[in-house]
Amino acid sequence: MIYLDNAATTRPSESALKKANIYLTEKYFNPSAKYRHGIGLTGELQQSREALLRAVGLKTGTVIFTSCGSEADNTAVFCHSGKGKCVTTEGEHSAVIASFKELSSRGVETALCPIDKCGKVNVEKFLSMIDERTAFVSVMHVNNETGAVNDINAIAKRVKEIAPRCIFHSDGVQALGKIPVRLSPFVDLYSVSAHKVGGLKGVGALISQKATAVHPFIFGGGQEGGLRSGTENVFGIKNFEYALTEKLQNLQGEYNRISGINKQMRARLSESGFTVISGEDASPYVLSVSAGAVRGEVLLHMLEEQGVLLGTGSACSSKDRFSRVLRACGYGEDVLDGVLRISFSQETTAEEVERATELLIIAADKLRKVMKVNVCKK
Predict the structure, then answer these.
(1) Is the pTM of this model over 0.85?
(2) Are the CB atoms for 198 and 243 separated by under 8 Å?
(3) What's the pLDDT at 213?
(4) Cβ-based neighbours of 198, under 8 Å, separated by 6 or more
């Protein structure tokens, strides 16, 4: 099997699982227990927090472990949205967009900024929406459908110049462990997820700069320093730490290797009648293309029969025929119907991508002949 849907989820790291297994078999205690076994786990969880802070370039800060990236996004939005205007972009993950819709239904003033054809935020337009009343903004670091990279440090700095007390949040789920991440002091909150970097589903985190107040979103036993109640998933959290550490060991080398694979695939698909949606400066781990009149979902299943798995967009929006994000990019149904999202991981090989590209081109050509669709190859 050739797996090319890594933006949806990655295969768990076997070595990280093996290393973390001790937290299932021996160190299975509740971290809140008062005996030394539980107290010891509290210290080990602190090690995981420190590892996450280092991964985003911070020496100090707060790490709140959650059940997923969506919970981290929701926590950020609803903890800081009650004191003024809230602004985000049309390219955000559904966890942010749906949260903003809920805010609007509660009477909070919200605004969504347009994105360009590659999925990047229109920075000047975004800044024009910010004023002194703005309490919270959210700008995704790497777009999960196109790979577009927003310069969140630069945007956050300019936002704070207009609204110094505004809280700046970024969804970093598709950035962590794939591109270099060094948060500036202007980025207050950053959401991450374990299963995008070889960890397990069911673990995420909201990283907060030291001076940023986070109010509880889930109440109960007062875990996570009183900021997120619920017994910590020690096994999942330690597995997250170990898997992420592996990814960071050769981050730049893998980035360069995946960039080469991405470049070759986009060139071949472009020559074969596909529209390449992802920009040249996008994260190399995500490549969004369109086969035009040839339905993307049909191609997906044809490739599946050949042992190749890829996506048609965000897995969190798979029930929708057309991508909300790509529609916001300005594409019409002639492009949206044929969208495929190909996403790589550090386990992806050049040979796998070459084979998948060949099978995809053959499948598209076969369908075009059946549909009698003419393609002008470049």
Answers:
(1) yes
(2) yes
(3) 72
(4) 10, 11, 12, 13, 16, 177, 243, 244, 246, 247, 345
Cα–Cα nearest to 59, from 68, 71, 50, 70: 50
pLDDT in tens, 197-226: 999 999 999 999 876 778 888 889 889 888
* Residue 377 confidence (pLDDT): 52
pLDDT at 136: 95
Calculate mean pLDDT across residues 176-180.
97
Which residue type sits at 206?
A: L
Which residues are paired to 115 by β-bridges? 121
Question: DSSP states of 176-217 as a string?
Answer: TTTS-----TT--EEEEEGGGTT--TT-EEEEE-TT-----S
Angle at the Cα of 321 from the Cα atoms of 373 and 317, rounded to 5 degrees: 135
**Residues tagged active-site:** 316
| Residue 223 to residue 38: CA distance in whole angstroms | 13
Q: How many helices (H) and strands (E) does the chain have?
A: 13, 12
Alpha-carbon Rg of the chain, whole angstroms?
21
Place of tokens 């630069």: 154
Cβ–Cβ < 8 Å for 10, 258:
no
Distance, CA of 151 to chain centre: 15
pLDDT band at 339 (very low <50, low <70, confident <90, very high): very high
Give the C-alpha separation, 173 to 185, whole Å. Answer: 19
Q: What is the pLDDT of residue 319?
A: 57
Q: By C-alpha distance, which of 70, 79, 82 is closest to 109?
A: 82
pLDDT of residue 108: 93
Q: How far is CA 129 from CA 4, 56, 139, 140, in A?
A: 37, 28, 13, 17
CA angle (209, 106, 111) in 5-degree steps? 65
**Nearest C-alpha neighbor of 273 from the set 352, 366, 348, 147:** 366
- Across the chain, mean pLDDT equals 93
Q: What is the DSSP letter of 374?
A: -
Give the C-alpha separation, 215 to 224, whole Å: 12
What is the helix (H) or strand (E) element at residue 191, kind and residue range? strand 189-193
Pairing assessment for the beta strands 85-89 and 134-138 based on DSSP bridges: parallel
Cα separation, 137 vs 154, whole angstroms = 14
pLDDT score for 114 = 96
d(CA 183, CA 201): 25
